[in-house]
Amino acid sequence: MLRYGMIGTGMMGSEHILSLRNIDNVEITAVVDPSEISLSLAKAMLGDKSERVQYFKTTKELVDSNLCDVVVVVTPNMTHEDVMEELLGRDIHILVEKPLSVSVESCRRILDRAKAHKKILWVGLEYRYMPAINQGLKIINSEDFGSTKMISITEHRYPFLPKVNDWNRFEKNTGGTLVEKCCHFFDLMALISKSEPTKVYATGAQDVNHLDESYNGLVPDILDNAYVLVDFENGVRACLDLCMFAEGSKDEQQISVVSDKSKIEIKIPSNLIFLGDRKTGQKGVKTLEAEPDTRIKYQGFHHGSTFLEHLDLIEAIETGSYAKVDLLSGIRSVAIGAAAELSVKTGKAVGIDKDYNLSIL
Ligand SMILES: NC(=O)c1ccc[n+]([C@@H]2O[C@H](COP(=O)([O-])OP(=O)(O)OC[C@H]3O[C@@H](n4cnc5c(N)ncnc54)[C@H](O)[C@@H]3O)[C@@H](O)[C@H]2O)c1
To answer: Which end of the chain is more exposed for a tag (fewer CB within 10 A), N or C?
Structure first.
């Protein structure tokens, strides 16, 4: 039995609990969350197992209990650094939810402390595990696809949902929309381009959402739409089109990748993949239905990707392997998001150096 501790049991914590409950040879032994409402939610998700779980007030108490081999950090973004501080260097595997933290500086402090950590450190950038995306990545990585030149990702969706204590309404807590939400897409861009980001230009605003809300007299300050352009070192260029007042969309995410030979389009949740090439043109475009991954026993809000991410993490633990989604993916995806937020504010392009330092160009 692999023993899991849950740190934070709100919306995403529940998805982790239900994923883990559907995996053999895994048990949740410890939970910490200061919110009584979230704790009752966790108990409901744990069902008949909830009485065998120990509930703690702090992360330190949870780690000191020695009840866990693995912990999952699913707390608000602005708490990740402090929570990680309690965990790093301890004899425990860690899965920390995205974004790794709210700024590049904070991520770098985590990376510095992580040098002394001997166990697996995994960042929850799980979009790459969505079956349609995973299948698309295999095609893009095949020799036949050719050399990738352009990546375009569109996310047109509903506004941010309410969260415990409304933490996601303010940039200081989240890092900003382009960090909080879009780190997933910047991670995919880096994965597909197989390169490092060098320059970002973005334009965006808060035009529609949350403008009539007020929390202790403060109106939310998070972007609800943006275009972000990202240049990669190897010449690949990428574009994100984000709109968070687009409930009327057929697909929430659309990813297009064009190489010197081919083009692929991935549609979610339609789970369709269109694949064409320059030789056969429009007539030759094939429509593929993404094959369901039969290993998925719990879909959650993310098409089973959290479940698959846990299977991979468990395999890495059992085989003594490494984190497939590591801290570098964590800091890189935050750096692109933070650069985009800075570009929106300044109206200037923002450079990213090889250590992920940002500079206004
Ligand atoms: N990978 C994804 O697709 C995905 C999706 C949603 C959220 N997330 C991430 O998961 C994290 C949590 O988001 P959520 O949607 O579950 O938020 P939430 O508000 O629903 O839940 C957060 C929980 O953490 C608890 N908490 C706060 N401080 C804590 C601490 N110091 N120790 C323990 N618990 C603490 C809160 O009481 C709350 O119950 C965020 O980092 C978010 O970005 C990731």
So the answer is: N
